[in-house]
Amino acid sequence: MTLAPAPPADFPAELSSADLLEMYWQMLRSRRLDERAWTLHRQGKIVFHISAMGHEGTQVGAAFALRRGHDYVVPYYRDLALLLALGFTPQAFMFGLFGKQGEPTSGARQMPSHWSDRAMNVVSTSSPVATQIPHAAGLALAMKLRGDDRVALTCIGEGSTSQGEWYEGLNWAAVHQLPFICLVQNNVYAISVPMDQQMRVPNVADRAAAFGLPGVVVDGNDVLAVYRVVKAAADRARRGDGPTLVEAKTYRVVPHSSDDDDRSYRTRAEVEAWKQRDPIVRFRAELEAAGLLSAAEQAALEARAVAEVDAAVQFAQAAPYPAVAHAAEGVYAPPEAD
Ligand SMILES: Cc1ncc(C[n+]2csc(CCOP(=O)(O)OP(=O)(O)O)c2C)c(N)n1
Ligand SMILES: [Mg+2]
């Protein structure tokens, strides 16, 4: 038997070779699933997709920094890689895209990517951006009152930090020193609006001082850097030392959603420059340099990702649609008898 080489000394000491490969796998599978969603949309087989492409380093780094299934996560629509790393399945994702019976988060009544999963402690997201922030702060308050050691992590885009709920939630978390992490995934744009039309400060994290909590900026395309920062925030929260604002700088390398045409507001050169900083390519190079990932292993992971995506698509396509009456179930109370 050959033993896997130990990770290099500059990698996080608590992550084994298997953990590192699992992180890479989660990023890779998310990307392949995401690419297929775009293809299905362009083929006219699904009606909507909103993508995590480019954000995988941020999201997988954050997921691995948590106690998955123990801590609470209040995600936003772009969190495909985060959800997969927490245990959400490709089939569940495809059931959402196709709107099929048995879709686990809402029985296919919600839009795709409005994640929730009771067993994974993932709390449902509303469509109005930033409403998840007070929800997560409230959860963190419950954790504190119960005296348990769970952390509540919530995610948001940089543009949505202009919403009042973001200020209210962060202020509340700071005042009450809650076990709370706000992970801002700064991808430079809010649909077509660039960050410099959203705020006059260079970093969202600069605003942390106004709440009296630490604000940390991290390279969101460096999965291990994000892991370290979010792990430190989670450790801090668990010690009772309060919340942290983490800003991961990344880039959305595709349009905002399947319904957006980004050629109207940014140049191809800008997008191409960011594609050169792809978090998956970067992590693969680090693993290869460390002797942790061979060309054969890489090819095997690619084949496994494609097989899982194919199987998920076939399963979802073959499944029935919900009955029409199901659309209103759970929305309105049944009429009261006269
Ligand atoms: C209150 C509210 N206003 C507007 C929208 C429409 N909307 C959906 S996503 C989005 C952009 C959000 O950008 P950002 O927060 O930077 O996140 P990103 O999509 O870039 O990850 C907008 C304006 C909404 N859902 N809710
Ligand atoms: Mg954004």
Q: CA-to-CA gap between the ends?
A: 75 Å
Structural class: alpha/beta
Detail the poorly predicted runs: none
Would you report the number of β strands?
Answer: 7
Report the major sheet: 5 strands, parallel
Overall CATH class? Alpha Beta
Q: What strand order characterises the main sheet?
A: 1-2-3-7-6
Radius of gyration of CA atoms, rounded to a whole number: 20 Å
Helix content: 40-55%
Which secondary structure elements does this structure contain, and how are they paired or packed?
Elements: H1 17-42, H2 56-65, E1 72-74, H3 80-86, H4 90-98, H5 132-146, E2 152-157, H6 164-175, E3 180-186, E4 189-190, E5 193-194, H7 208-211, E6 215-219, H8 223-238, E7 244-249, H9 268-275, H10 279-289, H11 295-318
Parallel strand pairs: 1-2, 2-3, 3-7, 6-7
Antiparallel strand pairs: 4-5
Helix pairs in contact: 1-2, 1-3, 1-10, 1-11, 2-3, 2-8, 4-11, 5-6
Bound molecules: thiamine diphosphate and magnesium ion.
